[in-house]
Structure formats: C-alpha cells, structure tokens
Amino acid sequence: MPDSETLSNLMSENRRFEPPAELAADANVKAEAYDRAAADRLAFWAEAAERLDWGQKWDEVLDWSDPPFAKWFVGGTLNAAVNCVDRHVAAGDGDKVALHWVGEPEGDTRDLTYADLKDEVCRAANALTELGVRKGDRVAIYMPMIPETVVAMLACARLGAPHTVVFGGFSADALATRIADCQAKVVVTADGGYRRGNPSALKPAVDEACEKAAENGQTVEKVLVVRRTGQDLGESGWDDDRDVWWHDVVASASSEHEAEQHDSEHPLYVMYTSGTTGKPKGILHTTGGYLTGTAYTHWSVFDLKPGTDVYWCTADVGWVTGHSYLVYGPLANGATQVMYEGTPDSPHKGRWWEIVEKYGVTIFYTAPTAIRTFMKWGDEHPGKFDLSSIRVLGSVGEPINPEAYIWYRETIGAGKVPVVDTWWQTETGQIMISPLPGVTAGKPGSAMKALPGVSADVVTEAGESVPNGSGGYLVLTEPWPAMLRTLWGDDERFKETYWAKYAEQGFYFAGDGAKKDDDGDLWMLGRVDDVMNVSGHRLSTTEIESALVSHPKVAEAAVVGATDDMTGQAVVAFVILRESAVEEADEEGEGEELVQELRQHVAKEIGAIAKPRQIMIVPELPKTRSGKIMRRLLRDVAEHREVGDVTTLADSTVMDLIKQKEGTGA
Ligand code: WTA
Predict the structure, then answer these.
(1) In the chain, how long is the greatest CA-to-CA distance?
(2) Can you give the pTM of this predicted structure?
(3) Fewer CB atoms inside 10 Å of the end CB: C or N, the chain?
(4) Is residue 583 scored above 80 in pLDDT?
(5) Describe its PTM (predicted)?
(6) Does a cis peptide bond (omega within 30 degrees of 0) precede residue 267?
(7) Distance (Å, rounded) from C-alpha 299 to C-alpha 324?
(8) Which residue among 1, 538, 609 has the greatest number of ligand 1 atoms within 8 angstroms of its CB, and so is best to mutate?
C-alpha cells in the first residue's frame, strides 16, 4: 500500500474532467441509471439480462438462499456462443467485421466477419466433439493471440465444455498444475506465436505439461494444434495418437452445428489466478450472470455504439480482461474490434498507434503499466499517427497514477477524451467500480464509484463503513451477476478466502485497500494481502517463495513486492542458501551466477513474468518470535528506505546483516 505521503498527495488531487458534451448527450447510460438500480437492483439486472437471447426465460433473478453460493437467472437457459455470434448473423450483421486481427509480422492481418466467426466456431465445435469433448468436460487452451483462440473458447462454450485458458507466457509446470487441477482432457494450442519479432514456441511446453499432468493422475487425451508459425516442433515432436492439426480436423468439419441451450448456471470457464497461498485458485464463472454482467458493463462503461465503434482491448486472452472484454462482453454486444498478436514495440515503438490509425479505433482499453512505458518511450511515437478517432480511453489492472492518467488523456486522448479507470478482479468477472464516460466528472487517479447495480463500500477491520476522507478495506456488499460462483473443486477455500472476514455482514472481501475522498469517491490503494501486482498481473508472494525453495541450493526465501515506477510493483526476493551452496556462492564472488540461476528457475516453475527483479542472498530473514517473516521490513530494504520498527523481531541484529548485503545480487 502507498505510504501516507503518497496518499495525501493523491487526495489533494483536485483536477476534474467533465464528460464531453456531445458524448454526454448521446450516452448509452445517463445518471438516472444509478437511481433506478438503487431503487430495485434485481429489476435493474433483469433488464440488463434482456440484452441477451435466452432459450428459456428465468423464473428468479437471484437465488441467494445459500450464501455465498449465488445463482443468477435461475431456470433460464442460453448458449453463450449463440449470444456472441449466431444471433448477430441472424439479425443481419453477418457481414460486419467481428475481429480485425493483426499479427505481429507486418502485413499479416485477417478480418473475420460475424458470419466467418460463426462458421469457424461451428466447425471447431464439431471437431472437438469428434475428439471426444462432451458437455461438462474441461478443455485447456494455451495459445497465442490469434483468432483461433477466440474460436476455441467459443466452441467450448457452445458445447458447454468449460475452458481454462492458460496465459501463453506461463511455464509448462504452471500449465501442468492447471490441467491436473481441473482435469482437462483436451488441450488446444499452437506450434507457437510471434513475440518481439520472433516465433516463440508453445507446443513443446504442452508436451512437457501433458507428461507432468499424467504423473499427477490426469491424462490428456488429445492435443489440437494450430499451425501459426510453422516452426520446428522440438524434441518431443509429434505424438500420432494424441496430437491433431487444427487445419486437418477443423477445416474439414461441417459449419453446421446445432447449439444446445445450457442452464444459466452451467460452468462457462475456470480461470486460475494467484492467491495468498502457493496453489493458484480456479475461479469458476457460469453462463447467464457472467454474460449479462460483462455485456452490460462493456456497453455502459465504454459507451459502445456497436454500429460505428471500433473497440480495442490490448489484454491477452490468457487473463480475465481478455475473457470479459475481448471475448464475451464485446462479442455479446456485436462489437467490431481489433485483436493484436504481438508486443507494442515490434517492429517499432509506434506499432499500437499505427494500428489505431489504420482501423480508426474509437475505444481503447489498456493497462497503466503500458501507459507508463509509452510515457518513457516519448510522445514522438504516438505523435506520428492520427489518433483523432479515439473517443473513450480505459484503464485496468492496477491503480493508475495521476501522471499516467493525465498523459493518457493529453497525448492519446487529445486532451479531451474521458478516461475510465475500471476496478475489478478475476473473481468479479465484470467491471465493478468505474466512471461512466457520459456521466462522471473524472478525477485523475480515482475509479470514482460503483457502477449502477453494484454495491461497494470501504470498511474498517470490524466491518463498519468508514466516513469520507478515510481509508480501509474494499468490500462488495451485495451479490452481482458475474461474480465467481466458487473455486473449482474447493468450496471451503472459496468461503474462507472471500467471505470469512466479513461473514457476519455477508460482505465479499476483495483483498484491496481503498479510500473515500471528501466527496465519497473511491481511490484504490492496491492489495492488502500477499498478492503482488506486477504490470497488472497478479502474482503470489508465496507461490514465488515456493518456487525458490524448490531449488536445491535454497534453504529459505521471502518475497516482497517493491514499488516500481514502470511495473507498479516488482518482485524482490531474499534468499537463504543451504550450507553447501553458501561456500560455492562465495567462491563465485557474490553469487552473481547463482542469482541468475535462481531467476531462471522461477521462470521455469511459474513463467517469465514471475522472475524476480532482484534477488538478495542473505544470511538470515527477519522473523517475529512466533516465526512469522516480517515482510514489511524487507519491503523497506527493497524500496531503499530507512528500516522501520524492529522491536518485535526475535533477533534485532538480523536487519543489520541484511542491510550490509544490500546492493549485491542482480
Ligand atoms: C488490481 C484484473 C486499482 C486490484 C481485472 C485487484 C486495480 C486486482 C484496478 C485484480 C484499478 C485491477 N485500480 N487496482 N482500476 N484494476 N486492480 O484478478 O488490486 O488480474 O484486486 O483482474 O488488480 O487483478 P486481476
């Protein structure tokens, strides 16, 4: 959490940006929506659900008789893929572009209309059926950012086979854990994808993951492989019994597929995310409520006009933002959008802005870490392109600092485009707290207030609402349609993690700190638990500690998230070596090589995003008398601050030893 100085600087921020008059006049959602939703929340969400096509209408909007297990639109049936694709074709929008896909290699583009998407999804659904996928089976998806990824997700949704998309940057080990946890029997992948100008392999990691998952009792029966880069498949090669090419089985499948109407509460997908313990949590989202929540918020928060807007969310589909605001929300709304495969600086630092100009992007949604990177690269890169089509800018994933907000508004938004800072989580499924571009006078750095139909508060440890001008814990006080239903296979952990802290009040505990300003508007302050936020990606301190300790040379490890100008937080690790390794490290001179070895080890165990920025090899870790590591003190060291109060340490000289080591390591 920011220190009190940062906090008071934030709170004294007094710039306000009124919505542009034209946008306000024609906005999808006006101020009255807040009152209407407050008067009857369930009626409000029932109306939002009318945006979708239902097979059978629901009997009850919300069943909350067994909290915290919610059921939304009880008795209703629908098909998510039909809602995202078929119904737009049926309504005469078949020729409308659904995806302007842009590959990383220049000139490698594809436009898919809604009719194209429908054919592809139907073919893929038939092919998956052929491969043995049945309603209720889990399918893991480990893919680059290509149209087939969206097609695979929708094909699973069509069949009622929950998908679990694993970010392509995760390691084989991470993929194996997820395959085993949700017992996926089929994996959809590609030979590779393009990153930073080069093909980057995926299939070898799938082979390794399948082997590991089998050791953990889960046999993957089929691996469906898209040929994207044409690269060599690596040592593990091709398993004729298990592996099938997408172009062999999908291209030849029929484009006719009759979709079943699934129960509103039928599982749509499982998305793994970091929690406070080492084991990732499988967040379960279901169909009717999730689609209602994402479609409504995508339409309201971005003021989407499906007929004219060109929307672009830069998130990878491997994260929840890609699920809710690249796949389900926008497609349910019949939007035309851009999907880009690669990195923002390939082949040049203006690539994103070139794409905005080319497709006339009107709504642009990205993360603060990207915005700060562009600030660093310089205004000349966006300056080379015409960005005047943009009319709404969105931010997600971490608190946006006022400087980044202002730069975004000025440089990308010509000094007049509203910025919507959207707070939500993998668990919430949908945006919860955000300005509305046609209603809210935005404050740089504030997510402002809960959306219509959403109830949030900031409370004390005891669960009492704090007065304006004070901070506390962010809670959600009423259920919402896209809320997670449970953790895959672990109802107890679901209750314990989110609902136990405020069991008496029945609040959902978000794990974030927040402050109400004098107007009651909300300022998000980051996590209050052992979850870090690096470049908008959630990482668990415990998970990285376990990865470090699994290295044979490491005896003990403590990880903290240190404030970082560019990535928000950065991973800093403190490591105690085993006796045998200590001598070796000394010989190698401060253990530089070992530090690199440990960083690589973390990348292998979890993924490159989890690699510590710095690893300090220390003789001891600061612990209380009861043996708890005092991360607060380590954070002081990592952020180069005066070390705080050490009186509760079992051995108060430990911090001196650690301070002596400061500056060593990578
Ligand atoms: C943080 C990403 C401040 C927060 C959609 C939350 C934010 C975690 C914001 C969820 C924001 C997300 N302002 N903090 N606008 N958006 N966060 O599950 O700490 O990857 O708990 O979902 O990101 O991360 P997740």
Answers:
(1) 74
(2) 0.93
(3) N
(4) no
(5) Acetylated. Deacetylation by the SIR2-homolog deacetylase activates the enzyme.
(6) no
(7) 12
(8) 538
Helices 631-638, 654-661: inter-axial angle, 10-degree rounding:
30
**Cα 64 to middle of ligand 1, angstroms:** 26
Q: Helix, strand or coil for residue 631?
A: helix
Structure tokens at 94: 């078949």
Place of tokens 């024609």: 26
* 538 Cβ neighbours under 8 A, 6+ residues apart: 273, 274, 426, 531, 532
DSSP-H helix ranges across 408-518:
491-494
Would you state the torsion angle of the CA atoms of residues 248, 250, 256, 259, taken in this order, to the nearest 10 degrees?
150
Tokens standing for residue 28:
């999808």
- Please, is 65 exposed, middle or buried when counting C-beta atoms within 10 Å of its C-beta (0-12, 13-18, 19+)? exposed
As given in the structure block, the two tokens for residue 252 are 């030849």
Pairing of the two strands 97-102 and 222-226: unpaired
Task: Give the chain's radius of gyration (CA, Å).
Answer: 24
Which atom of ligand 1 is least distant from the CA of 447?
15
The amino acid at 130: E
pLDDT over 50 (residue 2): no
* Strands in 211-274 per DSSP E: 222-226, 243-245, 262-263, 267-273
| Residue bearing the CA closest to ligand 1, atom 12 | 397
User: Has residue 233 got a pLDDT over 70?
Assistant: yes
